[in-house]
Amino acid sequence: MIEPFEVRIPESAIADLRARLRATRWPEPATVDGWEQGVPLEFARELCRYWAEDYDFGLADRVNVFPGFKTTVDGLGIHFLHVRSPAPDATPLVLTHGWPGSLVEFLDVLGPLTDPAAHGGDPADAFHVVAPSLPGFGWSDKPSSTGWNVERIARAWDELMGRLGYERYAAQGGDWGAGVTNMLAKVAPERLIGVHVNMAGVPYDEAVLGEPTVVEKAAIGDLARFREVGSAYAQQQATRPQTLGYGLADSPAAQAAWIAEKFREWTDNDGSPETALSWRQMLDAISVYWFTATAASSARIYWENKKQDVSAVEVPSGISIFPREIIRPSRRWAELRYTDLRWYEVLAEGGHFAAFEQPEAFVGQLRGFFRALR
Questions:
Q1: CATH number listed for the domain at residues 59-208+311-372
Q2: pTM
Q3: 295-304 helix and 241-250 helix, angle to the nearest 10 degrees
């Protein structure tokens, strides 16, 4: 059964958040300038002040602009937006977010994707869009037992798309959403029109590719730096998500800082994340985690996927490389895994949160790739 679902944030929850923010016990400043030791105290205080005093708490209304639903798949309640295009022959598309993301990232692209004619585009590029919340994220239920790895999520997404009447469909994702999208190509290749990712995890194989080019060396160096100084969050979430959850679920300042650091590290900004995403955008994303109390349950996706699948993706594939993405394989590098790569473009601006940061470019990439597969 598929039932309509509206996001609701009670006034009592907002009042509690404000009280907690105003009562935050702050640590001393870092002993270095900038972000080297984490989120600077001044930035954290301003972010939390804005959240308590100036933020527009109309998040539920912003999500509820689009039709929302909930259904049980493989024993778990899955929340999703389902926005059908006015074009009857539109291509069904499932969009999957990652961590620390949510379907909020897609709110600015749902209109242009589903109704391109109303946004200056070609009606032939229309999609019927399904945007689910990952298990343990947002308004989907929290798993109470183990086993919800990317393969199980992909199989659930395939069942969901079939339940909605889509025999064949396209898939897109970034971060963990890319993992789910790649896995869909493995578990349901006959139903996939094609897959598009904006984060392509492909190991570099020097035995096959030889010496890296200058551009490849830069990408390999950036990835090495990420592993050295930027990946501790992943190790923590992969090993002790429950312990982490106590602090994040109880302290909105901690939850805000935990996510805001990633906005600074992974967006195409000028040194501070608000130059890539507005305060409201960042706090919309953070608020999803806070009001749903999903700090621990969302972190468990790392625990469930300690060994990541990097097997071949053999369906028609498209990759868009944004300059501040964590991993940026060249085309020849990407083709080690994506054996039917039909679309590969490097963009001038943007980072890890592609749809959130660069909605027009994101939409253009999806239209361009899937146009040839219609």
A1: 3.40.50.1820
A2: 0.97
A3: 160
